Amino acid sequence: MASVPPLSARLQNLLKTDYPRYSDNERSRRRNEVEGLLRDAGCDHLVYCGMNRFGSAVQWLSGWPVTAEAVAVFTPGERDAMFVQYVNHALLASVIAEDADVAWGGSSSIHSAIDILKKRKALPRKVAFIGPLLASQHHALAEVFGAPTDLNREYVKLRQVKSEEELDWFRIGAYFADLGMLALRDNLAPGISEIELGARIEESYVALGGGHAIHFIGTTPMSDPKVPVPRQYPSHRRVQKGDVVSAEISAGFWEHYGQVLRTFTVAEPPTSLYRELHAVADAVFDAVCAVLRPGAMPEEVIEASRLIEKSGFTIIDDLLHGYGGGYLPPILGSVSRPAGPVPKEPFRLLQTVVVQPNVTTMDGKAGVQLGEFLVITDQGVERMHQYPRGVEVV
User: Fold this and answer.
1) How do the domains of the chain map onto residue ranges?
2) What pTM was estimated for this model as a whole?
3) In the CATH hierarchy, which top-level class contains the domain 164-393?
4) Which backbone phi and psi does 208 adopt, to 5 degrees?
5) CATH assignment of 24-159, given 3.40.120.10, 3.20.20.370, 3.30.420.280, 3.40.350.10?
6) pLDDT band at 53 (very low <50, low <70, confident <90, very high)
């Protein structure tokens, strides 16, 4: 049966830290990168923000995973000033984001940030922003300093490529996602519901300090399939003998998430249709991975996936997407299910992606899941996950 090897001693030590921090060198690297973005944009100050656990720049620059809201001011040569909502969140934020001066944002975090910008004598047209700035927040900044410069596109390009230190944190996230898939496999049996499976998945990594992102599960009879991709919200349907079960699981370590996708059958081997679907997915996964290298172009990935259509199938998902700090570009579909204009920028060294040729029938009734988080190296791709590939009969 499939198993997941333990983390190395080095990563286990990192995992045991209450509030882990990146090294001084890594934090300096990030600040230098952001200072470069500001120089290129002709700006002197940055407002970076997030809310409702969304807005990766806050965690990337300060270490604080956003809760309700965080608005911070970055000025080269100064300590960051961060304002959080709610008042009871400020104490822990000040412990975790120890390189910033953290305070409660009062009735308005953006206005508290504007006060800091005024004290730092920010000039009109010299303020930029990264993160999900609300229209009202944008308006407040614009009233005082003119329309802020949007650096989100440039920030996303930074996040496509990871440092070696970042990859260690993502390896822990990938390990947690693997544990989730292992828990799904170990609890699959006739009678258990999709909702109950979700609980067992989360238990496997939350007990070790892991964070939850998604566990999408799809169960359907192989003899009469109606669920081609995992459901984003589980149902009360109970697993039955002869089912096919597909899953996509993302779990993480301090906002550093892995993502793994696999397929199982219950008490019976895959039918000929599901064997063919998975064989095509397997072959396409290998074909795509074979072209991923620094300098490869996105159109090569799509070309490598043509076996899907040649076999009479399609996909109901993205074939490849960037990952790690968000759902990042490039986002690529296949010939039969394009995802928009094909980007013209080549893949880069240490860029991280998810390859997921989730092949389905043309009628949208049957499908399999196969995919995982990868990093592009000079030698090709490195797997971040250890959960074995292939359809498992449970």
Assistant:
1) 24-159, 164-393
2) 0.96
3) alpha beta
4) -105, 5
5) 3.40.350.10
6) confident
